[in-house]
Description:
By secondary structure, this protein is of the alpha+beta class. It folds into three domains: 4-100, no CATH class; 116-188, Orthogonal Bundle (Arc Repressor Mutant, subunit A), CATH 1.10.10; 191-311, Beta Polymerase, domain 2, CATH 3.30.460. Helix content is 34%, strand content 23%. It has helices spanning 39-47, 67-75, 109-113, 120-131, 138-145, 149-161, 178-188, 206-213, 224-228, 247-253, 290-298, 304-317, and strands at residues 15-20, 26-33, 57-62, 79-82, 87-91, 96-100, 165-168, 172-176, 195-201, 220-223, 240-244, 257-258, 265-270, 280-282, 285-287. Strand 14 and strand 15 form a beta hairpin. Helix 1 runs parallel beside helix 2 (67-75) and helix 11 (290-298) packs antiparallel against helix 12. The longest helix has 14 residues, at 304-317.
Amino acid sequence: MLDRSSQKGPKRKDAIFRVTAPDQRSGVFAVEVQKRLEPRGVGELAARPPATPVDAVRLVLAPHLSQSVCRRLTEAGLSFLDLTGNGRLELQEPGLLIQTQGALTNPDREARSSQSLRGVKAGRIVRLLVDSKLPPGVRELADRAGVDPGYVSRILGLLDRQALVERRGYGRIVKVDWSQLLRRWAQDASLESRGTQIACLDPRGLPALLARLKEFAGRYALTGTLAAEVFAPVTPSRLATLYLDDVAESMPSLGLRPAEAGANVLVIEPKDDGVFIGAAPRGGLTYVAPSQAAADLLTSPGRGPAEAESLIAWLVENEDAWRG
């Protein structure tokens, strides 16, 4: 969503300030205030005629700018600053580059709640959009996710404003920026939000656990690093993360016991069956879909985020191997 800058023609500058170097060379920033700026609005803002004076660098100021908006502003060559400290100010003459990071999420609770992908229903919709090479329509999404079409429409509206989907005609989805959608989903719905988690110890180590899982009759799915290394080169895991249907009943049969320290297994009893969508056996073990593994790793501790990016890079190069 673009604020006042959506008006046609040059926009009145809200403020001007000049930066002067010790050798008296100087540059000018023309400030443009936005109450709210969505990723979709960045392109509209960048396409407007430049502010006056013509040699001024445009500086976007807003209460909060999301990571996606900051990335798009940078790509568009615009400077920016928000009231939480996210900023990038760049001048070619004199040479100046200041870059800072502030709040990743909007501190305004009301604004944040209206733009969230947190929750099991939103998660199911995200997974369907990410995993489907041919984007489903609203009613198909609703049927497959088991949610109301009205809710699907609201989520798609959010994703459209965030420039994570592209729609044509009567709202038909023609493109999904699935890698950025995964990152956006992880930002709102971390691994901790998936369900009840228990840190456990398998005294015999991970090879023993994996051997028992091959004989385990209950429903489970491995995620995290163990799932990522099936597809992409990542550091060998010292922690197994797995979803289990009934943790209390399954832990004893798997030889696991709760551990306050030295845990090598993280067991999650999920809030929703969506984490099992697309799970498949490989080498006698069941793993979550690669998109689920990437989303889980993005907010996992340690090297999890870096391993997620390695997995996403593999997914980008091999879309035909996993998108249906």
